[in-house]
Write a structure and sequence with these properties.
single chain, mainly alpha, 2 domains, 9 helices, Ferritin-like, ferric iron binding
């Protein structure tokens, strides 16, 4: 604990203060004499240290009162005693807790939608295994995001409250676009929506003056979300070029072997 100089001096008796002043003055005199004689700085410092040590042995400081934990009394009073209250919660606003629970629901809803896309493209009469693999991995990733937010909620002392999940589409065939392009455009829309929700979550953290939560969202989600939007935008552009025919099969093969044997 730091003590102000005025408070510290007030703890000594007048005689101790006089002795301390004389000692300091004597040390300055010794240092001045040493400087006049041309003694090097290192020798001057050593002489000053020895003089201070000698003075400490000759004159012990008395009347010093050490009061630890004064600054934590207020925080100590805030530690909950009830067993159903979080001990880890500190400066975690109710608005932040509610926003995190909302984002958990967003991530689970998007994961559920991706899982429906996986089931569609995995059918025997659709048989686009690359797209099925891509959407299954996307579903797992969004679920991982939800679990990461749940862990964060618990870390900050909040309560995870899961909300209902909306039933997604089960059919993705489209007369004009075809199923592959239509599903990928839906995927792009979902990623953009998720990014918007994350930005709203970050704004709540900023408004509640919670820099740790804002840093968590930035480092764990926002950069990855921007990269995902860029990648899926490229997939949409490619599928628009190949049309609904044989090119979709080649695109599907590219997704199927993505990441295998050093492939992109």
């Amino acid at each position: 604990m730091l003590l102000r100089s005025s408070s510290a001096l007030s703890l000594f008796s007048p005689s101790s203060e006089a002795s301390l002043t004389a000692e300091i003055a004597g040390g300055r005199s010794s240092l001045s004499t040493a400087g006049a004689l041309g003694v090097p700085n290192a020798r001057r410092s050593a002489a000053g240290a020895l003089a201070a040590a000698g003075g400490a042995r000759n004159q012990a400081l008395t009347g010093f009162l050490f009061l630890p934990f004064e600054e934590v009394k207020q925080e100590l009073a805030l530690v909950p005693s009830s067993p159903d209250k979080s001990l880890a919660r500190q400066k975690y606003a109710d608005e932040c807790e509610a926003a995190v629970n909302e984002q958990i629901n967003v991530e689970y809803n998007v994961s559920y939608a991706y899982h429906a896309m996986f089931a569609y493209f995995d059918r025997d009469n659709v048989a686009l295994k690359g797209l099925a693999k891509f959407f299954k991995e996307s579903s797992d990733e969004e679920r991982d995001h939800a679990e990461k937010l749940m862990e964060y909620q618990n870390k900050r002392g909040g309560r995870v409250k899961l909300q209902p999940i909306v039933m997604p589409l089960t059919e993705f065939d489209h007369a004009e676009k075809g199923d592959a392009l239509y599903a990928m455009e839906l995927s792009l829309s979902l990623e953009r929506l998720t990014n918007e929700k994350l930005l709203n979550l970050h704004n709540v953290a900023a408004c509640c003056k919670d820099p740790q939560m804002a840093d968590f969202i930035e480092s764990e989600f926002l950069e990855e979300q921007v990269e995902a939007i860029k990648k899926i935008s490229e997939y949409v552009a490619q599928l628009r070029r190949v049309g609904k025919g044989h090119g979709v099969w080649h695109f599907d093969q590219m997704l199927l072997h993505e990441g295998v044997n050093g492939a992109a």
